[in-house]
Amino acid sequence: MAVISLKNINVTFKQKKREIIAVQDESIEIEKGDIYGIVGYSGAGKSTLVRTINLLQRPTSGSVIVNDIDMLQLSSKELRDQRKKIGMIFQHFNLMNELTIFGNVAQPLKHSKLSKADKADKVNKLLKLVGLDERADNYPNQLSGGQKQRVAIARALANDPEILISDEATSALDPRTTNQILSLLKQLNRELGLTIVLITHEMQAIKETANKVAVMENGTIIERGSLLEIFTNPQKPLTKDFINTATNLDEALVKVNELLTTQPLAYDEELIKISYVGADTAQPLLSTIYADFGVTTNILYSNMEILTQTPVGIAVAIFKGSVANRNAAKTSFSDHGVVITELQGGTN
Ligand SMILES: Nc1ncnc2c1ncn2[C@@H]1O[C@H](COP(=O)(O)OP(=O)(O)OP(=O)(O)O)[C@@H](O)[C@H]1O
């Protein structure tokens, strides 16, 4: 069931005589329990699109349905109540420096009907959930960036939201802290059934957490699908760029190209990219490629990772042999579901 359904959303900003189209006729459906990653470069329209979910940004046109409620039809009081079910975290944490950690997490409960003791109990449970129960009396400036984001997450969960929007929440953090925060988000998704919308310019963050991905450019979603589909079969150049960065393939290709300038391919060699799904897909084929087709291989780069419980591999190799033999080997790989891309050479 879709918990978030945005249909034909347009958002236009008027600036003096200029009109900026931030989101153009875009629709997206997010199911309960999804961790839906939205990736794109700065200015692509990610924040604007996602901020229409809780109407922090009102769309110029289109419909916003959250939990079967038409958000655009609500009174201001009804909207305030619905917004409580949608938590948000941001790149710069947005904590109140004059309040303690406890005070920050208690902030959204200010007008709640809970008794003082129940509020305290709730805040303490949330701090425990994010691993900061011993820092309740500290102030934000006594915490690291990762700890501050944990406080922001606890605060975002104070009203028991069903949806959490994460807008570049790990962009200001180092890689290790980023992974810790992403693990916490995955844990919350698993344990609380929280639906998470994750906006980022880093495909790496999406790779670690999301089950679905949308790629945005110039106010529209140019490609979308399951994490596995997007990683194994990206269609658009921008998506390929993001994937190559997230799998370190772009760095590897720079090194491979450097190598090939000093040791150019021979007339009977070609550089091949091999992409496959499943741990035992490519290895058996590579191990018998010489016996089966008289083609030798030299693997220059290889990477395998587990995406949503599925092994996904990429390798870059030089295939050496006659044209007919190489073609027969490549056809056999393709027949076994391995995607072969010819990168260089292979004319003879
Ligand atoms: N309040 C606003 N007034 C005018 N223009 C805006 C406003 N908010 C966003 N924009 C413009 O809309 C476009 C999309 O911005 P948006 O912030 O949604 O992109 P983004 O993909 O989230 O990028 P970033 O990660 O840098 O925020 C940009 O051209 C931006 O300048």
TrEMBL record:
It comes from the Bacteria. CDD domains: ABC_MetN_methionine_transporter. Residues 6-243 form the ABC transporter domain. GO terms for biological process: amino acid transport. Gene3D superfamilies: 3.30.70.260, P-loop containing nucleotide triphosphate hydrolases (3.40.50.300). SMART domains: AAA, NIL. The keyword Membrane applies. Pfam families: ABC_tran (PF00005), NIL (PF09383). Keywords: Amino-acid transport, ATP-binding, Cell membrane, Membrane, Nucleotide-binding, Translocase, Transport. GO terms for molecular function: ATP binding; ATP hydrolysis activity. The keyword ATP-binding applies. This is D-methionine transport system ATP-binding protein.
